[in-house]
Design a protein that fits this description.
The chain is an alpha+beta fold. About 20% of the residues lie in helices and about 45% in strands. The protein contains 4 helices and 16 strands. The chain has helices spanning about 10-20, 25-30, 65-70, 155-165; strands at about 5, 40-50, 55, 60, 75, 80-85, 90-95, 100-105, 110-115, 120, 130-135, 140-145, 150-155, 165-170, 175-180, 185-190. The strands form 3 sheets. Strands 1, 2, 3, 4, 5, 6 and 7 form a 7-stranded mixed sheet that branches. A 6-stranded mixed sheet has the order 10-9-8-13-12-11. The protein has a 3-stranded antiparallel sheet with strand order 14-15-16, with helices on one face. Helix 1 packs across helix 3. The longest helix is centred in the N-terminal third of the chain and has 12 residues, at about 10-20. It is elongated. The N and C termini lie far apart (about 55 Å).
Length: about 190
């Protein structure tokens, strides 16, 4: 059974994340958080809001480099979202998706997205686009980033996708969708387009 650690300080998490990620996590790839099963676990008052802001004890974490560092050690398990290092894992709260997709570019047949934490993701079989219906019937589009972690596609980016979309007949009627990586992703009803 895992030992529980209560309320670690942010400084300790930063030190552990820095050690786990190394000096240049983006250049060497992401830490293998999916392989780590530390004995110590606890919680930390970090919330990732629906708008993608990371908040610690009620204050927005304004240091972009710190948010990017934390994003490299984020893991989604069946029981929630965790910041994971080789020596401990700390549960955090995620209001919707942990990331936001803030840019999309068409590169030939591919759609390339950039997230608010600097991930570059090409939509395709392993990085699916899906759209749910939110409150009031509004579309809630998501992009799979890595290992169960998704990015909410921001409204301006979704509008760009809608401009790129083509209609197809599907078992659910005519749908608009975009293609990337050899996969066609439905994004909404073709009847809703003006």
């Amino acid at each position: 059974m895992a030992e529980t650690v209560q309320k670690p300080g942010l400084a300790g998490v930063i030190a552990a994340a820095t050690a786990a990620a190394g000096d240049a996590p983006r250049k060497r790839g992401l830490p293998p958080v999916h392989l780590w099963n530390p004995a110590h676990s606890g919680e930390i008052d970090i919330v990732i809001r629906k708008d993608g802001a990371w908040v610690h004890e009620g204050a927005v974490i304004g240091r972009e480099a710190l948010v990017r560092l934390f994003s490299t050690i984020l893991r989604r398990d069946p029981d929630g979202f965790w910041l994971v290092t080789p020596v401990e894992k700390l549960r955090i709260t995620v209001e919707d998706a942990p990331f936001t997709a803030v840019r999309v570019d068409r590169a030939g047949e591919a759609l390339r997205f950039v997230t608010n934490v600097g991930d570059e993701v090409e939509a395709g079989p392993e990085h699916a686009i899906r759209v749910e219906t939110g409150e009031g019937g509004e579309p809630r589009p998501y992009l799979h980033v890595r290992r169960g972690l998704e990015a909410l596609i921001t409204r301006p980016v979704f509008y760009e996708l809608a401009e790129m979309a083509n209609a197809r007949e599907t078992p659910h009627g005519p749908m608009l969708g975009v293609e990337s990586g050899g996969v066609w992703f439905p994004i909404g009803s073709a009847e809703a387009r003006p």
